[in-house]
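Entry for adenosine monophosphate complex. Fields follow.
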Amino acid sequence: MGTLVQFTIAGADEDAALQAIHAAADEMQRIEDVFTIYGEQANTIKVFNASVAGEVVALPEEVESLLLTSLEVAEQSDGAFTPAIGALSLLWGFSLPEPPVSPPSAADIAVARSGVDIKQLDQTDVGWRRLSRQTRLDFGAIAKGYAIDRGISVLRELGISHAILDAGGDLRAIGDHAGQPWRIGLRHPRKAGVTLGWFEVKGDISIVTSGDYERFFIHQDRRYQHILDPQTGWPAARSRSATVITAGNTTLADAWSTALFVRGSDALSLIESRGMQALQVDAEGNIHATKLSLVSFHPTEEH
Ligand code: AMP
Ligand code: MG
């Protein structure tokens, strides 16, 4: 997933904690292998993406399940998040071994963009087919959250009740730290090492942030970053970062953080109406938020 995963565990002895961490890390690696569209190793998503348009491909239950969740968020977010963005993701190439230094041509973007409509993903009795050659799956905006949820399940199965599983700023925290809330920093989107504030959390909370600082290049004084607006095919321009907080569903928080990043602050009420909470930093650096009652948020004085 192109990121470092950090485990923090409290209230367990070291051997038990290490054993649980290894098992959770193995499970997260397995999920990366199942869902990635990069690298040489075969998986069914790569098979689907290379299939002839109209050909039915059977997807494993786990893939189908995350695809169905993705399609729901795609509908609910009016396509701001879409799992059918693979052709555009591969064209821009932010996650390729050699990241880009200049944008692709407008003509190539228009062709790849024609694939993003989820209506071109069709479920049959025996599998799924794509109706356009430009419709390719990419779970890059949701699989990390799913991997975190699976990692937390494994930790719990192995007796861990107090932990933070943090994959590059996307995280789920369970339990507490010796009776005290976990403290989690929210990164400033422009100043490395500086926080916008702190969350104090207890219980079971997912906090996922999509940011324009994660993968980007500057070309002719303009920033091009990896979260794409499916309506234009170009990098989404309404946000610097978008954070979604849920009661223990990192998968949904991940998908919605990407949708919020694309749509900007007008999606906050939509997110709130779905029982989630969120905070967005807009393109000018202003902060917009829903009520943040799932956590206790302490803004940093100076930023
Ligand atoms: P995230 O950091 O969770 O916002 O995910 C960003 C990744 O999701 C990108 O690197 C792409 O692989 C993919 N992606 C980019 N734009 C979108 C979008 N509008 N909808 C769904 N996935 C996207
Ligand atoms: Mg996401």
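NOTE: The domain at 162-299 is CATH 3.10.520.10 (T-fold).
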